[in-house]
Design a protein that fits this description.
iron; transport; alpha/beta; single chain; ATP binding; P-loop_NTPase; Rossmann fold
């Protein structure tokens, strides 16, 4: 089932076109990862789909409606985005930050309702951050902060969550912690997860569907087995990769690679 897709989407900055006439589908209730080299348009695509930036032509369609024409609060009840570098939360406690996720549901003077507090506590519990509720966000480790930002996105009660490189600047253990949390949200809460990842093996391990971009175009989209191949990685990254099988997940993994020179 596909609720969200782009149709001939073109995005650019000024006279420079980053993505031209791109059509992709986002499978519902699955984990989709977007891979590609730096500057290929991964983050730009995420921002355009979620209406953070405008696009030049084409359309983003969710549930049969053009996203660009949707009411802002209604859209915020359907999709949430966690950017690569979240805004500074200095001076806020964890609970206060997560409460910002309730903005689409607030009316009048913006006071939190009993329902809001229940959802905030639920989001903290699901992300394993309840114990930090009254602590300053600045006092947490990188992995803990990332889980709190995910809790804020969860508090929006959206069915689709976008994340731009959610493991950046985290050590290996915290990267795995965040990705396992997202996988849990997908499997247990049926959330559609769309994220940009740099690590190919993380993308293969956690994704149901992968979109490989190069210069704003889709080189290949499909299952991990269809995308993590020697030819696709050659085309996308200009590397000569050796592909093996992850002994734990049985999914393909890049075991080693060399740069392709002069091709």
């Amino acid at each position: 089932m596909v609720r969200l897709y782009t149709d001939d989407l073109s995005i650019g900055y000024g006279e420079r076109t980053i993505i031209k006439e791109l059509s992709v589908q986002i499978p519902d209730q699955k984990i989709t990862t977007i891979i590609g080299s730096n500057g290929c348009g991964k983050s730009t695509l995420l921002k355009a789909i979620t209406r953070v930036i405008p696009y030049q032509s084409g359309a983003v369609v969710l549930d049969g409606k053009i996203v660009a024409k949707e009411n802002t609060k209604l859209l915020a009840k359907k999709m949430a985005i966690l950017p690569q570098a979240p805004e500074n939360a200095s001076g806020l406690t964890v609970g206060e930050l997560v409460s910002y996720g309730r903005f689409p549901y607030q009316t009048g003077f913006g006071r939190l309702s009993t329902k809001d507090y229940e959802v905030i506590d639920w989001a903290l519990k699901v992300t394993g951050t309840s114990e930090f509720k009254y602590l300053p966000v600045d006092s947490l480790s990188g992995g803990q902060r990332q889980r709190v930002w995910i809790a804020m996105a969860l508090a929006q009660e959206t069915e689709i969550i976008f994340l731009d490189e959610p493991t950046t600047y985290l050590d290996m253990a915290h990267q795995l912690e965040v990705l396992e949390l997202l996988q849990k949200l997908n499997r247990e809460e049926k959330r559609t997860i769309v994220m940009v990842l740099h690590d190919l093996n993380q993308a293969a391990r956690f994704a149901d569907y992968i979109i490989a971009l190069k210069s704003g175009n889709v080189v290949k989209a499909g299952t991990c087995e269809e995308v993590i191949t020697k030819q696709v990685l050659r085309d996308v990254f200009q590397i000569d990769a050796e592909i093996g099988i992850d002994p734990r997940t049985k999914k393909p993994m890049c075991t080693t690679y060399n740069l392709l020179r002069g091709e």
